[in-house]
Amino acid sequence: MKLTQHGNHFWQLTRYGVFNCYLVKEEESLTLVDTNLPGSADAIVQAARTIGKPITRIVLTHAHSDHAGSLDEVAQRLPDAEVAFSQRTADFLQGNLALHADEPKSKLRGSFVTRQTAPTRLLTPGALVGSLRVVATPGHTPDQVAFFDERDGSLIAGDALQTQAGVAVAGDIRWLFPFPALATWRLATALQSAKTLRELEPARLAVGHGRVVDAPLAQMDAAISAAEAKLHG
User: Fold this and answer.
1) pLDDT for the residue numbered 232
2) Where are the beta strands (DSSP E) in the chain?
3) Which of 53, 90, 60, 88 has the alpha carbon at shortest distance from 74?
4) Which SS3 state, helix, strand or coil, does residue 72 take?
5) Average pLDDT of the chain, as a whole number
6) How far apart are the C-alpha atoms of 206 and 53, rounded to whole Å?
7) What is the dihedral of CA 159, 160, 165, 168, to 10 degrees?
8) 212 Cβ contact partners less than 8 Å away, ≥ 6 residues apart
9) CA nearest 74: which of 127, 21, 27, 144?
10) What is residue 57's three-state secondary structure?
11) Exposed e or buried b for every residue in 86-97, given b needs 16+ CB within 10 A?
12) Which of 7, 34, 63, 102: CA 20 to 30 A from 156?
């Protein structure tokens, strides 16, 4: 797993060139954002050793296998770590894929996984996890959230957007890397979430698939315009 530092506070961990999770530095410890594909736990723990700080928090953006796949493995290796994700993600990880009454009845897509690890803390929009602010960003999945680091404007957006094969809103296919779009629940909802993220004016965009983009606003604007054209064209 490749380890790449961005700015002063976070590292990108990349498996097979396209599957990302992140380690965010606090004063004394690290927060792990997503757990990558199954079988990633040893590499994640080794990355923390390389950085030289312990992982004390594990958080998830959503319940797809490439984001929650190693949750149980990592939690077993780090039994004292806080485990934090939303109630909606908890529902999916328990195998409950029923849509709520207030959710659009579009078909769920992508590889949802079931896992045994329960959250020690349930996340809600606006909550702080270390230095990370939780932002609700449904669309790719109903439970998708992003994490915004208010110290330096870094945004870890999960699959609300992708940068592999170009910056794109979830659900807007980039044929050189179509998988996040093909696994998206509802483009219209994802588009509104992308606009919510754009309003944060992030200085850096980190996603589940693709490179980290510095000064991403122009590319986010273009991605939003492209998704609007697809949706309304």
Assistant:
1) 86
2) 2-6, 10-15, 19-25, 30-33, 55-59, 82-86, 121-123, 128-129, 132-136, 145-149, 154-156, 161-162, 168-169, 204-206, 213-214
3) 60
4) helix
5) 97
6) 21
7) 170
8) 4, 6, 12, 163, 204, 205, 206
9) 21
10) strand
11) bebbbbbbeeee
12) 102
Q: What is the pLDDT of residue 233?
A: 75
Q: What is the pLDDT of residues 85-134, one digit of tens each?
A: 999 999 999 999 999 999 999 999 999 999 999 999 999 999 999 999 99
How confident is the model at residue 217, as a pLDDT? Answer: 98
Looking only at the bridges linking them, the beta strands covering 55-59 and 30-33 are parallel
Residue 200 · residue 135 · CB < 8 Å? yes
Helix 217-232 to helix 187-199 angle (10° resolution) is 150
Q: How far apart are CA 68 and CA 102, in angstroms?
A: 25
Q: Give, in words, the CATH class of 2-232.
A: alpha beta
- 3-state SS, one letter per residue, for 123-149: ECCCCEECCEEEEECCCCCCCCEEEEE
CB 170 within 8 A of CB 162: yes
Q: What is the pLDDT of residue 163?
A: 98
Res 99: pLDDT: 97
Cβ(112)–Cβ(99) under 8 Å? Answer: no
Q: Which residues have a Cβ under 8 Å from the Cβ of 77 and sit 6 or more positions away?
A: 41, 45
145-149 sheet: strands from edge to edge: 128-129, 132-136, 145-149, 154-156, 204-206, 213-214
Q: What is the predicted pLDDT for the residue at 85?
A: 98
Low-confidence ranges of the chain (pLDDT < 70): none
Residue 156 half-sphere exposure toward CB, CA atoms < 13 A: 29
